[in-house]
Write a structure and sequence with these properties.
7-stranded parallel sheet, 7 strands, globular, alpha/beta, Rossmann fold
Length: about 260
C-alpha cells in the first residue's frame, strides 16, 4: 500500500463484480474506504468479507432515486461521508435499432444512463458536504463515470448501448462544468474501456466458449487481447486520487488502441 487514496471514502456501484470490484480492491489497498453498492447482496457481502472493515455493502438499484438517497446516507453513517463516486453499474445490449423493443431500450438507458445521472445528482452535494467538513483530511472530490469505447465509436447492432454510453460521456462533461462554476473542488471524468474480462462478456462466452469468444473479440483490438479488470481499475484509481487534481470533464480511453484506428 502506498496510500494514493489514503482516507478517501468511495461509493462504488456494481461493486459486487467486474470493474468496480477490481477498483474497490485497489482503492482499499491504497488506503481508502469503500461502500459497495449493488443489487447482488450475496456477491456484495463476499467482496466486503474479502476487503475487511474498510468496506461495507449497501443494496443499491441504480434506477431507484430512493436507493441512492439511502446509499449516501449509509456512507455518511458508516464512514463519515463520501469523497469519490464510481458509477460503474451497467448492462450490455446487442441489438440493432430496428429490432430492439421500446421496453429494452428504456431498460438499457435506465441502468446505464439514468443510474449515472442519479449518482451525480445526489453525489455532488454529498461530496461537497464531505470535503467542506474536511472528513479524514481530504478536501477534494471526484466522480468517475464508466462509459465505454461504444460511447465514442458506434456499432451497427448496439443502438441502445451506444446511445446510453455516449450520453454518459457528455453528461460527465456537464457535471464537471457545473462543479467548476459552483466552485466545488469536485472533478468528474469518464472512463471508456473496450472488451474487458468481466461478466458483461458472459453472453459471448456462453455462445462461443470462453477461448473462442476472447479470440473473436481480440481480433478487433489493435493490442491483440481482451483487457483485464485491473487495467481499467488503475485508470479509475488515478481519477479518484488527487493525482488527477487538474483533470476534469475528460474521457480516459482504456481501449487497447481501438480509437486510434
Amino acid at each position: 500500500m502506498t496510500g494514493r487514496v489514503d482516507g478517501k471514502i468511495a461509493l462504488m456501484t456494481g461493486g459486487a463484480s467486474g470493474l468496480a470490484k477490481a477498483a474497490a480492491e485497489m482503492f482499499v489497498a491504497e488506503g481508502g474506504y469503500v461502500m459497495i453498492g449493488d443489487v447482488n447482496e450475496e456477491a456484495g457481502a463476499a467482496v466486503v468479507q474479502e476487503l475487511g472493515d474498510r468496506a461495507a455493502f449497501q443494496y443499491l438499484d441504480v434506477t431507484s432515486e430512493d436507493d441512492w438517497v439511502r446509499a449516501y446516507a449509509a456512507c455518511k453513517e458508516r464512514f463519515g461521508g463520501v469523497h469519490v463516486v464510481l458509477n460503474s453499474a451497467g448492462i450490455g445490449w446487442t441489438q440493432p435499432v430496428t429490432e430492439i423493443s421500446l421496453e429494452d431500450w428504456r431498460r438499457v438507458h435506465a441502468i446505464d444512463l439514468d443510474g449515472v445521472f442519479l449518482g451525480c445528482k445526489h453525489g455532488v452535494p454529498a461530496i461537497a458536504e464531505t470535503i467542506q467538513a474536511g472528513i479524514n483530511g481530504s478536501k477534494k472530490g471526484s466522480i468517475v463515470n464508466i462509459s465505454s469505447i461504444a460511447g465514442n465509436i458506434a456499432g451497427h447492432n448496439m443502438a441502445a448501448y451506444n446511445s446510453a454510453k455516449a450520453a454518459v460521456r457528455h453528461l460527465t462533461k456537464s457535471v464537471a462544468l457545473h462543479c467548476c462554476r459552483e466552485g466545488f473542488d469536485i472533478r468528474c471524468n469518464s472512463v471508456h474501456p473496450t472488451f474487458v474480462d468481466t461478466p458483461i462478456l458472459n453472453k459471448h462466452t456462453e455462445r462461443f466458449g470462453r477461448d473462442e469468444a476472447f479470440r473473436k473479440l481480440a481480433r478487433q483490438v489493435p493490442i491483440g487481447r481482451v483487457g483485464e479488470p485491473k487495467e481499467v481499475a488503475y485508470a479509475i484509481l488515478y481519477l479518484a486520487s488527487d493525482e488527477s487534481s487538474y483533470t476534469t470533464g475528460s474521457e480516459l480511453l482504456v481501449d487497447g488502441g481501438i480509437s486510434a484506428m
